[in-house]
Every structure is written in structure tokens, then in C-alpha cells.
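User: What would this chain look like folded?
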Amino acid sequence: MEKEIRITNELDEITALATFVEELCSELSLSPETTMHINLALEEAVSNVIMYAYPLEEHQEIRLKASMTDGQLIFLLTDKGLSFDPTNAPDADITIPIEERAIGGLGIFLIRSIMNEVSYQRLDGENHLTMKKNLGWDSLPRLSHYPFCLLPEATVCHCHQEPRDTKCNHCGDRYL
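Assistant: Here's the prediction, encoded as C-alpha cells.
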């Protein structure tokens, strides 16, 4: 499965991006929660390109390609804007009260938190940001007889035997 959307570097295009993500996740029968998380991460990544990669009033194309392989959803975000490697950006310090934090950095923090892998390359004058999301059990139909990880009475992830309050290495879900 492969899908692609091409948008311009205008904030109004975020609506088209959200529709693209919702349709993609619906086709894959992903949960509303996973859809929301993916949408948030991609919105943050695309917003950064729109707001910072190009001079004002310069209209350029942004491409987002989605592909699915072996239970992993892979997004490739490509633009010809200023070179910026978000994987080298420092982690946002979320322990500092919000009113004392410097502006910026939370979007990259969200992308790193939601996606299982994030990598960057500058190739032929283009930024290539690859974001991978492991789907694990989330890609299966929601049937009551499946032993899903987030059963309220569970103390471990029934799918992968991970203790609660950890991130499952298999599917990437957090068990609270």
C-alpha cells in the first residue's frame, strides 16, 4: 500500500493533510486514538515545514508519502526548504513550567514520542524526514475475544507480556 499527498506551504493545507491521514487510517482500520496520534505527529512535522522552511510568500510543494510494510506505517515527508534536521534538535524539557519554557521544540518532542523511529537526510537539495509507526495489534480488527493490551484489569500487556506503565517494544503502545 502506498499513498501520497502533495500540498503547498500554506497553513490552510493542514486541513487537506488531516483528511489524507484520516482516510489512510480508516482504510487500515486503525483505532481513533492511533489515528489522532499519527495526525498530530504529521501535522507538527508539516507545520514546521510550512512555517520555517521557506521565505514568506514563496509557494513551494510539500510531499508526504505513506507506505505500509510488515506492520509498520512509514511516512516520508519531502520539501525543498531550508535544511533542518529535527533529529539533531535538543529534547524539549517538559519538566519546566509552561510559562517558563522557551517557545518551540514541543512539536519535535511530540513527533519523537508518537513515532517509533524518526530519521532525516538531505538529498539533492531536499529535506527527507522519515517517520515510522509500528502498528502491532492495532492493525487487527477490534473483536472482543482478542487479548488487547489495554484491558482495565490487566497488570501486563497480554499480547507481549510487558509490565504496565512501559512502552511495548513490539507495537509501540504505552501501557498505563
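Confidence is low (pLDDT under 50) at residues 138-158, 160-164. If you want, I can go into more detail on any region.
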